[in-house]
Records
---
Amino acid sequence: MAQTQHPQGVFAPWDDPAEKPIIRFQSVSKHFGDFTAIDDLTLDIYSREFFALLGPSGCGKTTLMRMLAGFEAPSEGTILLDDKDIAAVPPNQRAVNMMFQSYALFPHLNVHDNIAFGLKRSSMPKTEIPARVDEMLRLTRLEKFAKRKPHQISGGQRQRVALARSLAKAPKLLLLDEPLGALDKKLRNDTQFELMDIQERTGTTFVIVTHDQEEAMTVASRIAVMDEGRIVQVDTPDRIYETPNAVYVADFIGDVNLVHGKLHNDDQGRPSVHWGEGRTPIVGSMMDPAPAGTEVHFAVRPEKINIGTERPRDVTNCVRGKILDIAYLGNISTYHVELPSGEVFKAQATNSRRIARRSFTWEDTVWLWWSDTAGIILTR
Amino acid sequence: MTKLRRFILIFVPYSWLVILFLVPFGIVLKISLSDIAIARPPYTPILDLSTGWAGFKEYLSQLDFENFVFLAEDRLYFLAYLSSLKIALISTVLTLIVGYPIAYGMAKAPNHWRPTLMMLVILPFWTSFLIRVYAWMGILSQEGFLNQFLLWTGLTSAPLTILNTDIAVYIGIVYTYLPFMILPIYATLEKLDDSLIEAAEDLGCSRLSAFWLVTAPLSKPGVIAGCFLVFIPALGEFVIPSLLGGSDTIMIGKVLWDEFFSNRDWPVASAVAIILLLLLVIPIILFQRNEQKNREANQ
Ligand SMILES: Nc1ncnc2c1ncn2[C@@H]1O[C@H](COP(=O)(O)OP(=O)(O)OP(=O)(O)O)[C@@H](O)[C@H]1O
Ligand SMILES: [Mg+2]
């Protein structure tokens, strides 16, 4: 995370009651006909944040952005920007720039003029515009294509033009709708760092839509996971990953093993999950205590599960099964282990040894175990 | 097999061009080089193949450019061409001014309205062109609907003279050729991605400047096509100026008619037609060049 580099300590305005959010969604809903695209959404975004929106296709990410940019008006609720209701402010008077998911490049203008378009409409002196455009071209590595029209460049280059065009005016709030999807991995990583760098330098607030979790994890100060027009969880990347508040979030971000069962609280109030007759209950951590007997899910990440041929001593969470499949991913391998009851667990281990020297392979019987705090018990 | 197909594909349109354009053009060109005669057909010489090679040479030697010289010497023709150009040009601009907002409105209308609006634009084609022009005579004449309406509202105290003036001709041309302006402009505007306008507004444009900087340049091909589709037929227009125009409305189409049917001077009439065609060929070539350039730029 970029923000951890701040000298004054961790960047966490959302934990500071004195901080004022730059954007406030207050019970905002958006209906298209009888379809609800945004459903009673409340959300605060703070200045200098790098806020990532994550969610499946059609969950309302673009709609949310379009309301911020001024192309859609909320059907209900209010959106405050700097404490002012922006409903009546037209798009050209908002200190907001948006990079469109469809890029929306002007086909009759070349790359240079596309990037200069916003600058020419700003208060920037005419003489300074070329330098600014050149800077943007350099940043997005488009120097060679400045004179080309949008239809004469590749899809990834077009995406970079759209990004450069939205960055050029250095607005207070930048909305990026899948800004890096068409780029190759290396260019994407470089651009991510460029974005974080720009953010550090200019203090712009970024709201970014991405389908790439790794990207969200790398760049975001906070991530909002959306589902069908609602926000399921807003949190820092590590908390989203480590302590999801719902099965939906755990399942959406990264890989997870899910076990369904009934909650049991022991004498000390330690929660565990009963997940079948004759099986040792699974112990895990729980954020919000719930009464015993509640239907719950136990979620644990594959990399938190150890795998071995010997039964370890002194662990509560331990199961035995047969290796069904091994997915070799280079640095790590994922083992699919089938329990006698039919459930399949995924466990990840780093490949510190060469394949040939691994101590277990297909059809081998192995033990899986994890610590009491490795997994999390979820009520929804 | 593919060779045969390619041959047919090329042959059919070209034979169309040869039969319906080049052959008549050749005939008209030949007549324009002939002399007037009181005969049937009313010109001479007439090709007679029975006289053989010598006869053909004799025939060729009788063709000359006399009629074109005549056209150049009589100022009437020059003025007629000039006045036609002026009327065609002004009516093209007027049609654009009227047509663009209509096309724009159609393109911005809700999707389910568009077929209906399109129907309304082409609906007038379902009645005879002549009847529609006569209808305008009924509207514009001294006792016509327009004057009756103006007198009734008290906007004017005496009926206006509109029929048999250039104004009536402009009204007639704009009305008649409006669909040819609307349709190509509508086609380009309809293709226009709304997000481009949103992007322009997002980058600081007002509605109006977004229109000038994005919509207008992107609809240019449609505007150019529409202007040519109006200008070219308007230049040679005959029915509208002769029915709606006055005696001082001179258009080359009318001159052509008079030469053919009143004076029965086919050779001069043909020469007038050939010059008109040459006048039209220039804008058509310019138009084609422009299209070609656009296409190359878009590759
Ligand atoms: N103008 C509109 N009219 C009707 N429905 C709309 C309109 N715009 C969006 N929707 C619907 O609203 C929902 C949310 O759309 P949105 O574009 O915000 O999704 P998204 O989260 O950006 O998806 P993606 O990841 O595929 O871009 C979708 O189901 C979409 O069909
Ligand atoms: Mg989207």
---
Amino acid sequence: MPREKIEIPGQIDHLSILDKDGNLDKDLEPALPDDLLLKLYRTMVLGREFDARQLSLQRQGRIGTFPPITGQEAAHLGPAAVLRDSDWLVPSFRETVAELWRGRTIESILLANNGYNEGAEMKPGMNMMPISVPVGSQVIHAVGIAWAMKYRGTDDLAMVFFGDGATSEGDFHEGINMAGVYDAPVIFVCQNNHWAISIPRSKQTRSKTIAQKAIAYGIAGIQVDGNDILATYAAAREAAERARSGGGPTLIECVTYRLRMHTTADDPKRYRTDEEVQGWEKQDPLLRYQKYLKAKGLLSDEEIVSISDAIKADIADAVKRAEERMKEIGDPGDAMSMFNHAYAEMHPYLKEQKDRLAAELKETAKEGDNG
Amino acid sequence: MGKMNMVEAINLALKQEMEKDGDVIVLGEDVGVDGGVFRVTEGLLDAYGEERVIDTPLAESMIAGASVGMAIHGLKPVCEIQFSGFSYISFHQMEAHAARYRARTQGRFGIQMVLRCPYGGGVRALEHHSESREAYYAHTPGLKTVIPSGPRKARALLVSAIRDPDPVIFYEPKAAYRAFREEVPEDEETFPIGESEIVREGKDITFITYGAMLQRTLDAADTLQEEDGVEAEVIDLLTVSPMDDQKFTESVRKTGHVVIVHEAHRSFGPGAEMAARLVEKSFLYLEAPIRRVTGYDVVIPLYQREKDYIPDVKRILHGARETLEF
Ligand SMILES: Cc1ncc(C[n+]2csc(CCOP(=O)(O)OP(=O)(O)O)c2C)c(N)n1
Ligand SMILES: [Mg+2]
């Protein structure tokens, strides 16, 4: 038989538990405790409100450019919520809600988004990487972290996030391939929000789904409705069980939508229509989840308002604290600090450069006194 | 043509070269529908269509490598890497192939391509959007590295780069993109790659600089004139590599004092090469140690502290007065 069909192992499911109108598929409902359900809700609201607040701060010039996440809360919070403290989260730059869930503070995000290096400070013991700006590059780090976990004999895992655009980068393919070859405990989560700045998903790959790329690398893959937090949670929980029990990596494609601009420097009107955006606004992950919680008797209309008000007040306090900290650091800040973390130990020529700048600044300050 | 900023001037160069030569192709992330994140390629898709203005998938190694292939087959790709901070992903293709094909094939395949990218500080952006690491490219034999300082030169140099038979890295100082306007002639204008230019004449001290540092160096030169009565000569390098050392050699032989200004890191930066050439060719003419006013040997801080990293007029003046008082 010179030519016959090869049976390729693997198939790709699409998982949806709360449909576009928030109606529940009872059979698929993950049995999550009420307090977890509500904590997820509050964190989603926090993400949504914080996004809105940052947008207004940006417009007032109180912070710089940042990437909004509105519409993608469920796509990245659901997966992150299955992690244990000892697991690692490796974000790209559009997982603000997952970062908040893991304990990153609003203040630190504001500091980072206003150009202070202090914004990247991580609490010791927090198993999370800082955001990674070079698209796709962080994917491989998760594989290395997972390798170390396996080597140490733990059943921890690493979860890495990236966008649909990132799947065009070599780093994505190199990482997923390596993890597949050695069964590394990694969960690869793609937030397919349909756009990479102005480039639509259809111009990133000819593949019908991103999830199916898992088949090529011989690992498990699934596509989920990324605006359905029950589905993103359930898919990630399944992947986590697989990873912890030695079953290897999983690629999860969360199909979602970036409702706002790429970053505040971007103008989406140049490349997409209002109708497209409005279509996705109707599939808002937050509204769907509210409907579910209300049907379960866990949330009332009054609580929706009171929760949102309380969160807005928390954000306002955090903004105040962040701006106090910025003042404390000083604008433009202590220039000398840029030398501090260049190496574990400062080399002599760098010390020379630092001393020279210090002397120059002192001189300038003196001139200022005289004049 | 009237007054243009650098974005408009580069756009003009692209338009005119595409109009003139059907082999010129533009490719990169967001260069088509969006017109580039800085709008440098605005209008090109409408004018020349999808086969010549390609919105690529998000993959810098592919962008550079596909450009190499196009060049081998006789096209003249002008690819855009969205920010120089992401050009290291394409660096492999530039170093391993673009820079070497001519030598590897004993002259059969020259790689006539331009890799454009915005570089340098000044846009209040996230990490990786502010570096000035032209030395990586300048250190690679086979590549040419060009850095314009204003709209008119940017237009003329880009035309020359597109026509140059060798691969050219075209670093665009994003701080200068919209900083000021200049008269840019409608008629074709080129400027030779590999030549620097004296932009201000003087007899007492020589400044050598390029890119976004030119304007502040000129400001410092004016201040020296006003406050110290010193006449400074200012040289705009324009091509970092291959470096034109003739003009600055002559200048320093005249002035005896020299200050090199760049945003790039200090150690192994372009200034180190200039200093070496000066010592080689003008040692006996130097009346004071060569001064470098540069970025430091640290990762450029986020934007709140960026201005402490990037040389400013004060630091330039400080360096100049030190060498003059030596
Ligand atoms: C390697 C690299 N190339 C280009 C950029 C500029 N850039 C930032 S985000 C982005 C699009 C990313 O799209 P996607 O991966 O879908 O993530 P999303 O922004 O949609 O969350 C681009 C091109 C970058 N940060 N890194
Ligand atoms: Mg995307």
